[in-house]
Amino acid sequence: MAADKKIAAITARLVERSKPSREAYLGRVREAATKGPHRSVLSCGNLAHGFAVCSPSEKGMLAGDRVPNLGIITAYNDMLSAHQPYETYPALIREAAREAGGVAQVAGGVPAMCDGVTQGQPGMELSLFSRDLIAMAAGVGLSHNMFDSVVYLGVCDKIVPGLAIAALTFGHLPAVFVPAGPMTSGLPNDEKARVRQLFAEGKVGRDALLEAESKSYHGPGTCTFYGTANSNQMLMEIMGFHMPGSSFINPGTPLRDALTKEAAKRALAITAMGNEFTPAGEMIDERSVVNGVIGLHATGGSTNHTLHLVAIARAAGIHLTWQDISDLSDAIPLLARVYPNGLADVNHFNAAGGIGFLIRELLKQGLLHDDVRTVFGQGLSAYTVEAGLGENGAVVRKPVPAQSGDAKVLSTIEAPFQASGGLKMLKGNIGTGVIKISAVKPERHVIEAPAKVFHDQAGLNNAFKNGELTGDFIAVVRFQGPKANGMPELHKLTTVLGILQDRGQRVALLTDGRMSGASGKVPAAIHVTPEAKDGGAIAKIRDGDMIRLDATKGTIDVLMDADIFDARIAIEADLSDNEYGMGRELFAIFRQNAGAADQGGSVLF
């Protein structure tokens, strides 16, 4: 089915806007691809270093450019639950490569940090910049020019976007992303949130809180709520980087291992040495990017991807804007309810039909581009399946069921949970920002209240503890942008503001920082740009100023005479405490060169 007219129109303007940079990018990709198997350009000394540890038979194969060599970029570490499963993947991939008549080598490792560990800590100020660092680290691994195709092993928040940027930077090489899957379901997310609120109110102790958290995050795999990590997996599948049906299969299962081996064999099958050459830079185009945004809206995904998708697209010469994202939100219905946008977790979502069901429903009304290239070698309709194990242990696929396994979790296109997607762009005299409204009740889509201004989240939390946050208000937490302190997530504010809202106060958040895919029931205008450090209007707000946040109309304004507000001097803040400790001094050059949030908050583009 042809794409819906609105989707086609938004895609067409993206194509037109991107034409100069996209054409230049494709020219570079095609020039690199014409050079053939890249080991042929290496000197004998170069090549000897590159395959020194290989077996004699592998050396013979690689010496003559007779077989493809598969590079592995891995984000493995064994502290983080989502990445611990990757410890065994290189052995599986090497075995699969041998079975397919190829060779596989670990090209390099990239850092993988967890926002869940660093929330509210100094290390959180490295988080966003780690995305660009991951892209650079992957680039170092691939710069040896030894590989004909690449598999990328990464799951969580900044890791997958960083790897995607690397995959598109090395766009002449095919790229297959290999997920590790979510941990099995533990303590329900709403119960975890309830205990957090009780702890914040002093009604339970740290021991009860730690017990609840440990029951929630209890084993290998991603966290089970629908935050950035699981939004990443949805994106990689709906954009065609995953094998169909692979995103949400639990770690340590025979199916997970079979999918990993299948992905490795497919990565070898699509090199320039075969008949299905699928370079990542040509595979991913404007339609693929639009499909990613649509998937984000239809599932109520992470707000972080208003940064990451912009940066990923830029790596392929595509100029995605927040306006594109907002306009697509107006055209895409919400089909999934996964925490914090509902009570279910991603395991429940997958059991209800998962991404395959979602794609099929969107394709019914032309709300996705089906005519895209994917690593599977077919259009997106090939992803309307669920994966299982055959009798011989290989992956088999069958069409997803006609009906959702749980209509409260995953609905049809005929009966969406709401008519529009979960993200909206906000504009006004404060600047431009983003709000996630899929989990916010409609009666809270408009908040008009006086400002309470803070320069960090600790200030707001201390005001809460001191009983100072009374009445209705909009919390303004500024100097949290990329240039100020690396744009940390302010997830610690979710509990406090949620408590106040539950008490009957009308509250909201306005910040140039991030709130993540875990942002929930409290209206939050985030990623406000220009940021305070750049002299943005958010730095002019004073305590008591009346602010109106209107998610229905898409506006954020200080309610005062324009001349008076414009004449105000922007406040400056002492940010010296953000410059040192936990590695922050190493990232000074990133803060100094970071782009604006609506440009991806990147130092690369």
From TrEMBL:
One of its GO terms (molecular function) is metal ion binding. Its EC number is 4.2.1.12. Pathway: Carbohydrate metabolism; Entner-Doudoroff pathway. Residues 68-381 form the Dihydroxy-acid/6-phosphogluconate dehydratase N-terminal domain. [4Fe-4S] cluster binds at residues 156, 223. One of its GO terms (cellular component) is cytosol. InterPro entries: 6-phosphgluc_deHydtase, Dihydro-acid_dehy_C, DiOHA_6PGluconate_deHydtase_CS, ILV_EDD_C, ILV_EDD_N, IlvD/EDD_N. Gene3D superfamilies: IlvD/EDD C-terminal domain-like. It catalyses: 6-phospho-D-gluconate = 2-dehydro-3-deoxy-6-phospho-D-gluconate + H2O. Binds 1 [4Fe-4S] cluster. The keyword Lipid biosynthesis does not apply. PANTHER family: D-XYLONATE DEHYDRATASE, PHOSPHOGLUCONATE DEHYDRATASE. HAMAP family: Edd. This is Phosphogluconate dehydratase. It comes from Rhizobium setariae.
